[in-house]
Amino acid sequence: xxxxxxxxxxxxxxxxxxxxxxxxxxxxxxxxxxxxxxxxxxxxxxxxxxxxxxxxxxxxxxxxxxxxxxxxxxxxxxxxxxxxxxxxxxxxxxxxxxxxxxxxxxxxxxxxxxxxxxxxxxxxxxxxxxxxxxxxxxxxxxxxxxxxxxxxxxxxxxxxxxxxxxxxxxxxxxxxxxxxxxxxxxxxxxxxxxxxxxxxxxxxxxxxxxxxxxxxxxxxxxxxxxxxxxxxxxxxxxxxxxxxxxxxxxxxxxxxxxxxxxxxxxxxxxxxxxxxxxxxxxxxxxxxxxxxxxxxxxxxxxxxxxxxxxxxxxxxxxxx
Length: 320
Known about the structure:
CATH superfamily of the largest domain: Hedgehog/Intein (Hint) domain
Strand order of the largest sheet: 1-4-5-6-7-8
Helix content: under 10%
Pfam families: Hint_2
InterPro entries: Hedgehog/Intein_dom, Hint_dom_sf
Mean pLDDT: 83
Domain Hedgehog/Intein (Hint): 137-273
Protein name: Hint domain-containing protein
CATH class of the largest domain: Mainly Beta
Low-confidence stretches: 302-308
Distance between the termini: 40 Å
Number of domains: 2
Strand content: 35-45%
Shape: globular
CATH topology of the largest domain: Endonuclease - Pi-scei, Chain A, domain 1
């Protein structure tokens, strides 16, 4: 099977310590070791980091080092003192059947220094929730370029509509997925404001959605002209920002293949279907895994993104 590279924002298990309950003093762990109603505090100085993975649809492995297996253990539900609930996935890195590290993938906004009571442990939904967390989508209102050159709101599109692709001209949509999520944590959309990448309107999309940028000069040191970069790596809090609060409607455009399409005039990927992401869509039985295309290997990983104004660099690099 072909590996698909992806990266997710995680905390280390050591960042969550039990302050009350049966396991007081212990760090958060996998489902078998957890006790309901224990209270865990997110360390005041905890910092999230990128975890780079290889996904073949059936298993996950670390992208670097020994390529250890990473298991999706469980989905936890935790409640804050104000009554708000958050979810997090527990990922366990394993080597020779021994747990080497435990990672916490937040599905919402966890506040540093805050206590959270564990109120739910769910194993069966964890894989689907991971597929939802690792995917990309466009927000309601995004204008998509049709095969005719017309631009239409994504929510008006239906299966069979012809979309302009960068790869293969006009292609019909296979299906349109949709979900509504709280705009918090990793699900809070990224807004690429008007003009940031020569776009005429704001482009609002999931943080992990990837954009394809052509560099006339290799400002990022990628060694190639074309690069795929996640929206969240462009955030500069000026021209590219995070919009938090309320709810957001996300839409996924699925084709027979993984294409580059145009959203608000910006080249961006369509929804990538593999064995894992297929399970997260309602009509998964009708979808086929996408074979690799050249652009899937163009992604700039988080640890390679320079600590500079990346949006500005790419805007300059793509200017004629």
